[in-house]
Structure formats: structure tokens, C-alpha cells
Amino acid sequence: SAASAASAASAASAEDCLELALAEYSAGIHFNPRDGELWQYAGVALWQLARVEEAAGAFRRASDLNSRDARPLNNLGVLCLEAAERASSAAERVSSAAAGAEEVVSVGDEARLLQEALRWFRAACEVGAGQVGGDAELNVAVALVRLGRTEEALAHLERAAVAHPDHQRIKSTLGVLR
User: For 147, which DSSP code?
Assistant: First the structure.
């Protein structure tokens, strides 16, 4: 149909734009490999292109180059949180499948990834959570809840709500946990 063709063209156009942006960031990095901001932007483009391992490498490099920037740390945490979600989904598929399933997922994969996400989010909070507008604090709470540590998440969100009184997602998540 015309609508699906337009949707496909739009998706292709968006991907082309991301590829073009990534090429620009990569060119900038070539000429100035110590620019953490370029690495951060390249990481975002790679992430949106579903090139997760490369995105993680770019975020790590951005963090190494600018240790006072919370954004790449928060982004690394989100990558781990997303990987934990995929591990959880894969574990569900494996547990419901017959023996000989193609996917092999360790029971500890999700918890390990959630712990790693929590580590990155806490690092982002320490560096400067104000840079990410309270999102790192919210993400700490999300990881804690996913790890079954709801009381700790609630206490963390209550402190975050004081520090970020206008952050709507912190307020709404706090309301849900109470």
C-alpha cells in the first residue's frame, strides 16, 4: 500500500540521515580523536543504528576523554538495561521452548547486566546527574526495581525528587512505587 511504502521510505530516510551524521562525526573524530563530544554523538548515532557494541565503545571513549560528562555513563547504563531486557526475553523464550533450543541464556545474564547498568548509572550520578536532567537517578531506581530492591529504589527516588523537583518521570515513578 502507499502508506507502507511511505513508512518504509521514511525509515530508510531516517537511517540514511543517521549514517550521514555518523560519517560526519567519524570525520571529525579522524581530525580530532580527543574530542569527547564527537565520540558521544557518534555513540548515539551508532546506538540508533542498532550497532550496540560500537556505540558502547564510543561512549566509553567519550567518558575516557571527558570524565566529567555524565551522558556517556548514563548511555552505557541504558545499553546494559536494554541488554538485560533482551536477556530476560531470551530466557523466557528458552524456558518455554523444547530441549535443543537455539538460544542459550544463562540464568545470571539478566542480573549481571542489571548490576552493570546500576554501576554505570551510579557513576553518572556521581559525575554530574544534573547534566542528564535527573535521568541517571531515575535509571538507578529502575535498575534497583528490576533487581528486586524496591525499598532502596524508593529511597533513591525520594532523594532524586528533592534534587529534581520538576522531573515528571521521577514524580510519576515515585507515585507508582509508593
Answer: T
Q: Which one is predicted more confidently, 87 or 99? A: 87
Could you give the CA distance from residue 16 to residue 152 in angstroms, rounded to a whole number? Answer: 43
What pLDDT, on a 0 to 100 scale, did the predictor assign at position 128?
Answer: 80
Q: Which pLDDT score, from 0 to 100, does residue 108 have?
A: 76
Q: Cα(151)–Cα(147) distance, rounded to whole angstroms?
A: 11
Q: What is the largest distance, in Å, between two alpha-carbon atoms of the chain?
A: 53
| Residues sharing a CB contact under 8 Å with residue 61, sequence separation 6 or more, in sequence order | 36, 39
Q: How many residues does the chain have?
A: 178
| Distances from the Cα of 19 to the Cα of 12, 42, 50, 95, 120, angstroms | 10, 10, 12, 38, 27
- Region class of 100: left (phi > 0), else alpha (psi between -120 and 50), else beta: left
What the block records as the C-alpha cell of 160 is: 532524586
Residue 50: C-alpha distances to residues 6, 55, 99, 147, 151 (Å): 22, 8, 30, 25, 34
pLDDT for the residue 51: 95
Model confidence over 112-165: pLDDT tens digits? 999 999 999 999 999 985 677 789 999 999 999 999 999 999 999 999 999 889
